[in-house]
T9SS type A sorting domain-containing protein (Flavobacterium capsici), 421 residues
Amino acid sequence: MKKNYTLLFVLLFVFAANSLSFAQACTTTVTEVTGTATICGGTTTTLTATHDGDNVYWYDAATDGNLFFTGNPYETAALTASTSFWAESRKQVQGTPTGGGAKLAPTSSSGTTVNATTAPWGLVFNATQSFILNSVDVFLSSTNPGTLVIDLKDSNQTVLQSWTINTPAGGTGSNPVQFTVALNYTVPVGNGYRLLAVSTPSMVRDLGSNAFPYPLGSVGSVTQGTINNSLTTNPGVYYFFYNWNYTPIVNCSSARVEQVVTVNTTSPPTGDAQQLFNVGDTVADLVVTGTDVIWYSDADGMNPIPTTTELVEGTTYYVSQTLNGCESTLLAVTAVTTLGVNNSAFATMNYYPNPVKEVFTLSNLEDTSQIEVYSVLGQQMFSKSYDSPEIKLDFSTFSNGLYLVKITSDDESKTIRVLKN
């Protein structure tokens, strides 16, 4: 008859008494996602999920989709278009402690100690679900107290945890003492774990009549025996560790909460890519249509320049506009004192007076020209085609201010600034 120590009863009583608190309801929620909901094109925003889980997982779809970030908060990449993000929280809770896992008790009376030349001896098991290995039972067959050394290894033989346990005096192989060894180790999902006896007092193993695999409820199974770190030596022997007590770790996920980030994209200002200038002219004399324009000396927009900057022959200047707080990409404008062949249609063109009160005259034009007049805000005030070398435009109905006159002829265009006063 096997003897049982009171320690076993105490441990199981504690497990049972606390099972209600361990078996927590598996629920988690994301209550909201906050962050700047409207940004400018090419910028980032930081999203923060309010949740009660262990961590936040960010997806590109309401269901399924791609997981692209884990953590909280989340800083997006630079966005060029409006984008939806979904936040999901997850957490792990402990289920109910469960005993009787693997083989419940030995069916033989073979008591032995681990042979140091073939150590360690133990069992191989898989974890299909994370769980806490609360305890295992050993059956002591020595009449003297002893020391039990246990290693838990992964499939790569890496030691995850070691325990050294003082064991009481036991019995005999036919009448061993059942002793509960508390382990309390969280085992992640994985295969090929090994629970190993490195050195032992005399304990009972089962040499035969074993029916591997032995289930560990829903969390895994014990698949074989092992000695000397081998999976092919004595796989049919059940070594030492009986009646596994384990607590499943349950994973739960929240419903996903969406956050839409609206991206405002501002188009660059408009204007001719090549513009004539006179010596002494400044950046202010370059003609572009836009709002809150900013001029730069570089294509990356890192070096802003004042509009009083004098123009230099063949130099390219870069200009942006800003709408609703969002700066555009850059328009490149090259300043030249003599237009190339592509602009020969305007080589002899004259215009006067400027400033103008009533009639503005364009002369020496090609026979056919399209004339457009815009306010500096881009509003078209006038548009008409002419078939004449001289054109007179009536400015008398326009309010005082700056206007842009665009002349198009033979697929070439030129824009001039005209001041009405």
Summary: Helices lie at 6-17, 19-22. Residues 6-17 form the longest helix (12 residues). Residues 273 and 333 are 5 Å apart (CA to CA). Residues 341-420 form a domain with the Immunoglobulin-like fold (CATH 2.60.40.3080).
